[in-house]
C-alpha cells in the first residue's frame, strides 16, 4: 500500500518523496489505526489524509473549520482530477441533499464538512448511508478547551463516530502540541498514546533572533529599509500599535499596508491582496492576519511585541520562508510586552484554571526572550521535539558567546530572594541587591539585610536581566498571576550549597546585526 501511496504522491501531487513524518502517518492510517499528527503550519498535513483517502475504498469525511479554505482545497483537488466536494452553511438544503445523494452513489473520494453541521441530528442520520472509510479532522485542537481556538461544535465529532454504522478510522491533525491539548484530543477521539506523531517542527531555513535593549522603532525602520525589496510581516500587539507603525512606515516612504480586526472586510481583503501580489512590501498586522494566507515568499516576520505564547509565535513567525528559501524571524522584546500580555490575560473571562494555564504559557514565551541558549532548541523542546544544543542559525548561536562562571552572582541573588522570604518580584529583589534607597526598600527595612547592596557594581536592569536568565534556566520560578513572586527551585539550593556551578554562555555586548549576509 505504501508503494501505492508514493505513486499517488508523484502522480497527483508531482512530489518525488514524502517529507519526514508524512510517510509514517500515512502508513499507520493505511494499517487501519487511528492517529494524531502534529505538524507545524505548512508542514504538509493535507497530504497525510488526502493520499489515504484516495487509496481507501469509500469516502473520507474531512472536518475543517474554515469555509474559505474549504473552497480552495476543493478547487485544488478538482484541478488534480480528484472528485471532492464540501458541505457548509453557504449551501441551501437542497444542494446539501444533492451532494449527499451523489456521495451515496460513491461519486466523491472526499467531502469537506464544517463542524457545525455535525450538531444537527438530521444531518448525521443523512450520513448513515455513506460508506465512510475515514474521518479526517483538520485543526483538531479546536476540540480542546485548552487550545487557543476551542469550538464546541468539534465535540459533535464524537456523536458522528458513534452514529456511523461502521466506525471509520480517525486521523486528526493539528499544529498545537501542548500536552493538555494533545491529551484532550486523544481522549475525546480515543486515539492511543503510541499513535501520536509529532514531526517537522524544525524549519531549518528560518533564522531566529531576539532583539533586546534597542529602540524598536529605529530598529524596525533600519531593518525594513535594508530589506526594501523583500516582503515582510510586522506583527504588533494591539490595533493602536498597528495603526501607529503603519503611519510611521508610510511617512518614511515604505510601501506598507495594514491589517487588523477593526478594519472593514473590504479594507482587509484589499490589503491582503495587495500584499500577496507584492504591491505592498510590508504588512503591519495584528494576530488577526495570517489564518489561511498562503504567500510563500515572505522573507521576514518581525514581532514588534512579544506574543502571548509560543504556539502563537511559532505559527506567526512560520509564515516566513514557506518557499524553503531563507527567512528571518525577529522578536523585538521589551519588558513592557509582558505587562501588555498580562493585561490581556486579565481582560479575558477565563476560569482560574485556564487563566493559570495562560500565565504558564506566557512564562515559556518570556523564557524564550531571556534564554542565553539556542533559540531553535528552546522552540523545538517546547513542542516536544528533540533538538541539538546548537543550531548555528539563530541570534544566540551566531553571536560570539563566552562561557562565564556566574556562580557567585547567582548565589547572591538566591540568598537575597531567600532572605526576602520568597515574597517579592524581580524589581524589588534587584533594588535590594543594588542597594537602592527606594521608598519600598526602606519601608520594609530591607536595607538592613546582609544582602543589601552586595551587587552594587551592576545596574538594576542588569540584575533583572540576570534574574530573568536564571528563571529561563529553571533556577527560579515565578508564581502565576499578575504580580509574580520569585521562588527558589531545588536547583538553586544546590548552587547555594556549592554543589553545582552556574555556567552560562553570555553574549559579549555587541550590537545585533540586522542585515542578512546575502
Ligand atoms: P499544512 O496543512 O500542514 O499547513 P499543507 O498541507 O498545506 O500544510 O502543505 C504545505 C505545502 O507543502 C503545500 O504547498 C504542499 O503542497 C507542500 N508539500 C506537502 N508535502 C510535500 C512533499 N512531500 N514534498 C513537497 N512539498 C510538499
Ligand atoms: Zn541556535
UniProtKB/TrEMBL annotation:
Q: Name one Pfam family in it.
A: RQC
Record PROSITE patterns: HELICASE_ATP_BIND_1, HELICASE_CTER, HRDC
Which leading EC class covers this enzyme?
isomerase
Recorded catalytic reaction(s): these are: Couples ATP hydrolysis with the unwinding of duplex DNA by translocating in the 3'-5' direction
Q: What are the recorded Gene Ontology BP terms?
A: DNA recombination; DNA repair; DNA replication; SOS response
Question: Record keywords: Hydrolase included?
Answer: yes
Provide this UniProt record's keywords sorted from A to Z: ATP-binding, DNA damage, DNA recombination, DNA repair, DNA-binding, Helicase, Hydrolase, Isomerase, Metal-binding, Nucleotide-binding, Zinc
Give the similarity note. Belongs to the helicase family. RecQ subfamily.
The UniProt record lists the Helicase ATP-binding domain at: 26-195
Recorded GO cellular component terms are:
bacterial nucleoid; cytoplasm; replisome
Which InterPro entries did the record assign?
A: DEAD/DEAH_box_helicase_dom (IPR011545), DNA_helicase_ATP-dep_RecQ (IPR004589), DNA_helicase_ATP-dep_RecQ_bac (IPR006293), Helicase_ATP-bd (IPR014001), Helicase_C-like (IPR001650), HRDC-like_sf (IPR010997), HRDC_dom (IPR002121), HRDC_dom_sf (IPR044876)
Q: What is this protein called?
A: DNA helicase RecQ
Q: Which SUPFAM superfamilies match?
A: HRDC-like, P-loop containing nucleoside triphosphate hydrolases, Winged helix' DNA-binding domain
Q: What is its EC number?
A: 5.6.2.4
Organism in which the protein naturally occurs: Paenibacillus aurantius
* Obligatory cofactor(s): Zn(2+); Mg(2+)
Helicase C-terminal domain ranges (all copies): 215-363
Q: One GO molecular-function annotation for this sequence?
A: 3'-5' DNA helicase activity
